[in-house]
Amino acid sequence: xxxxxxxxxxxxxxxxxxxxxxxxxxxxxxxxxxxxxxxxxxxxxxxxxxxxxxxxxxxxxxxxxxxxxxxxxxxxxxxxxxxxxxxxxxxxxxxxxxxxxxxxxxxxxxxxxxxxxxxxxxxxxxxxxxxxxxxxxxxxxxxxxxxxxxxxxxxxxxxxxxxxxxxxxxxxxxxxxxxxxxxxxxxxxxxxxxxxxxxxxxxxx
Length: 205
Prior knowledge:
By secondary structure, the protein is α+β, with helices and mostly antiparallel strands. It has helices spanning 31-34, 37-42, 94-98, 116-133, 136-145, 151-173, 177-184, and strands spanning 2-6, 9-14, 20-22, 25-27, 45-51, 61-62, 67-71, 74-78, 83-84, 90-91, 111-113, 187-189, 192-194.
């Protein structure tokens, strides 16, 4: 991506090399591949330098739009400070209800927007349901035919539920969005990847 700078102001962006007119001169698209950076700069064309130092994981944060700046013979595209997504549910207030902002039938304290904690726990519940469904047939067979459930299966299902409870507690007790992010962030120690939240057990074959 390139920018055209005129009188120290960015006047246009070029997403793909193309023929263009600057002043009274038409330049072919091949200047972008054949000319050096200094040659392009001499006619006011600068390659945009992307600064992603403020950009954060969009699972946890809302990033700003990029802003563009020309300074010291360089065009940069950068982000402002990211805003953490709400970790807890947002609730309707009496003032919002009084102002007519809430739907009919809403009471103070009703959920307005679900936060990250709720959504993460719902995802976890779905994952657990998927894992348990693989062995549900043992339960059905036991109910219908009185066939004993193998101890390894019972142990596995109990372990899954136990770990689910631990994980839900960790999510619920997280103090803010960065704390939630930390729970899900993998690190590598001695070649082994892990995260503070841990993993749901798998059934050993």
